[in-house]
Specification:
This protein is of the alpha/beta class. Helices cover 39% and strands 13% of the residues. It has a 6-stranded mixed β-sheet, covered by helices on one side. Strand 2, helix 3 and strand 3 form a beta-alpha-beta unit.
Length: 233
């Protein structure tokens, strides 16, 4: 009789241990691995969605910086930007956009697969949320060995379908001040999301974002949250 009870107890204990192991795997192991991996860790559902990733990312494994990089900048009000040769807009100053939610993305072309992959998302955000108070600004930062040409910037901007304000960040002045100075950054194609008071509320730390991947989903949620926030002058 005792031996029968003992067997039943062991089986129950094994079931409990199995459940505990499953909980630890989902709750503890995955975040730990995510913090150690150099790119974005995806679950099975997200991986399935990425089967249709943009063609420019074919063969590229790590298409984004770790999404928590840049979190230390949240809550900071950055200084104004230095930009020239505005396209699709009269020259804009950050302090004149108070009351707007501002998305600032640095891009370059040709040769930036991440910028090409992110272009449709930027265009979509501009079209869908512009009427609600979102301003998208694309800052071109020159990387090519060829001389900087405004005609080329305009040509690449048209190729990406940009209809929102675009300007050149000369010598990466604003990019360095907002992102690169005093930091060892692996990516320059960074995106900042500022609230209606001009405070940084979200940073996509570089690389690509597109529908169906975590960085895109998080960015869109933040856009919606900031547009829904009340604002008084």
């Amino acid at each position: 009789m005792w031996r029968v009870k003992q067997v039943q107890f062991d089986q129950r204990e094994i079931r409990d241990l199995t459940m505990l192991c499953r909980w630890m795997t989902s709750t503890l192991a995955i975040p730990l691995i995510a913090g150690l991996m150099p790119g974005v860790l995806l679950d099975a559902a997200a991986e399935a969605q990425l089967a249709d990733r943009p063609p420019s990312l074919a063969g590229i494994e790590a298409f984004s910086a770790p999404l928590n990089e840049g979190n230390a900048l949240i809550g900071i009000r950055p200084g104004g930007w230095t930009a020239r040769d505005w396209i699709n807009s009269e020259p804009l100053a950050l302090d004149t956009l108070r009351g707007k939610v501002v998305l600032v993305r640095w891009w370059t072309a040709p040769g930036c697969a991440f910028c090409e992959a992110s272009a449709p998302a930027l265009n979509d955000f501009w079209r869908r949320y512009g009427s609600r108070g979102l301003v998208v600004v694309g800052f071109y930062h020159h990387k090519s060995s060829e001389p900087l040409s405004l005609a080329n910037v305009k040509r690449q901007s048209r190729k990406f379908g940009f209809e929102f304000p675009v300007a050149i960040d000369p010598d990466w002045k604003t990019l360095r001040r907002w992102w690169l100075d005093k930091h060892d950054r692996g990516w320059t194609s960074v995106t900042f999301l500022l609230d209606r008071r001009g405070v940084i509320r979200h940073v996509h730390p570089g690389g690509a974002f597109f529908k169906g991947e975590p960085g895109y989903d998080l960015l869109e949620r933040k856009i919606q949250e900031l547009l829904d926030e009340s604002f008084t002058t």
